[in-house]
Each structure stands twice: as structure tokens, then as C-alpha cells.
UniProtKB/TrEMBL annotation:
This is PRUN2 protein. One of its GO terms (cellular component) is cytoplasm. Pfam families: CRAL_TRIO_2. GO terms for biological process: apoptotic process. Residues 1-104 form the CRAL-TRIO domain. InterPro entries: CRAL-TRIO_dom, CRAL-TRIO_dom_sf. It comes from Piaya cayana (Common squirrel cuckoo).
């Protein structure tokens, strides 16, 4: 669903924001699923991806991405950004409205 929607919407550069938060590890997508999604993305979509932002990354996500980095293209790896707080996200993407009482 996400990929077919992206194909219809993306004409220029875009960002994907993954809000990890307090997601338990058993509910996180597995390596096989992530690899399959990456392979399903059309070359044009991969080329136009400006950054893949992971908000509140867990140690598990950081470890998985560090281990798989040799198998992922260097161009894609350079697009992965970790953001630890919603305040940082608001700085990176100013058009996203995050209420002050949630940021604190």
C-alpha cells in the first residue's frame, strides 16, 4: 500500500519519517520484511528519497542497521538519519507541527 501510494505522490524529492517511539521489539518489522520493502521500491523512488528519518531509534534498530550496512547501498545508508527527540524533528522538518506540550 505504501509503495503504491508513493508512486502516485512522489514527483520530486521526499523524506520518510519512521516514528519508532516505545515500540516493543516483537512488533518491529523483521530484516526480511525490510529487505523486501527496499527491493520493491522503484529505482526512481529510491533516487528521489532525500532522507529516511528514524525518530526515537532503539538500540535494536541502530544495531540492525549497523549490521546490515555492508549489504545496503552506500547512497541509501547515507540517507538514514537518527533523531532522538521531537524537538529535533521540528528543527529538521519545520513544516511539521508538533505541539509544545508534546515536545517537552
Amino acid at each position: 500500500y505504501v509503495i503504491s501510494t508513493l508512486e502516485l505522490m512522489v514527483a520530486e524529492d521526499y523524506m520518510i519519517v519512521y516514528l519508532n517511539g516505545a515500540t516493543p521489539r516483537r512488533r518491529m518489522p523483521g530484516l526480511g520484511w525490510m529487505k523486501k520493502c527496499y527491493q520493491m521500491i522503484d529505482r526512481r523512488l529510491r533516487k528521489n528519497l532525500k532522507s529516511f528519518i528514524i525518530v526515537h531509534p532503539s538500540w535494536f534498530i541502530r544495531t540492525i542497521l549497523a549490521v546490515t550496512r555492508p549489504f545496503i547501498s552506500s547512497k541509501f545508508s547515507s540517507k538514514i538519519k537518527y533523531i532522538d527527540t521531537l524537538a529535533e524533528l521540528r528543527e529538521v522538518i519545520p513544516m511539521v507541527h508538533i505541539p509544545d506540550n508534546i515536545v517537552k
